[in-house]
Amino acid sequence: LVKDGATGLEKLVLREAHGCSVEVYLYGGQVIFWENEYREQLLFVSRKASFKPPKAIRGGIQICFPQFGNHGVLEQHGFARNRLWSVDETPPPFPATTSNCHIDLIFKQSPEDLKIWPHSFEFRLRVALSPTGDLMLTSRIKNTNADGKPFKFGFSYNTYFSVSDISEVRVEGLETLDYLDNLQRGERCTEQGDAVVFETEADKVYLSAPPKIVIIDHDKKRTFELRKEGLPDVVVWNPWDRKAKTILDFGEEEYKCMLCVGAAYVEKPITLRPGEEWQGRQEISVVPSTFSFLL
Length: 295
Ligand code: TA6
Hints:
Largest sheet: 9 strands, antiparallel
Helix content: under 10%
Shape: globular
Bound molecules: 6-O-phosphono-beta-D-tagatofuranose
Number of helices: 3
Distance between the termini: 43 Å
Order of helices and strands: EEEEEEEHEEEEEEEEEEEHEEH
Radius of gyration: 18 Å
């Protein structure tokens, strides 16, 4: 656990044998850097990001809980992403699939937040790096209500991928899916039959998406793979130029070099009875793009 010089925030740094590394802020439980062995920054962080409460850090992987978007009474995307988490000294046994290069954080309900969301929970987050530098996030959320009450929640790993040029990016795996279009008051629409490309603002939640999504950054000759478990939906967002100008913690031209794609649980909220625990995993990896063999 070190204090980040630039932001004054405490962070955990995880370095894997081959040089891949990940940095996680206790603020928001937020992965902020993910570097491969070539020291490339694979996640986008806005140069205008605010690192002070109550603003969530614009970039990396935001943990949106217990609400996604404005679907509910809480602030946009809930409060987990702008609260202080702590190191989990007593992590429960995680599924064998997480590598032994990991860090564990925990986030619990606070007395003040109980007023806005009257439920007790334990949210344990494991951030793990595989031997090949894949980044795996496992969230385990347990209902610890003493009053026997179940609770419902929404969730998303809002992951800001760094891309070379958004107009050269294609996303495969979302073809023909139904999605909720946030630009049309959440209206349910159906995606076309081939890969998703970007020419204007996009703000969609794809429903019941397959376990693997592929994001091809043609210019950087890089392909991201996103695998998910326990999370049926996928969020896709790029503000494009006009919307970007209205976002204070977002540089005007930055929409060109980012794409927010994340495994989520949006359409139907998750219900947990007391003592029950939900688990949601997202694993992202970088594979050399097939195009690189052609060029
Ligand atoms: O995940 C997509 C989205 O809900 C978009 O509608 C956009 O608002 C984005 O999240 C960013 O939200 P934020 O509260 O972080 O500015």
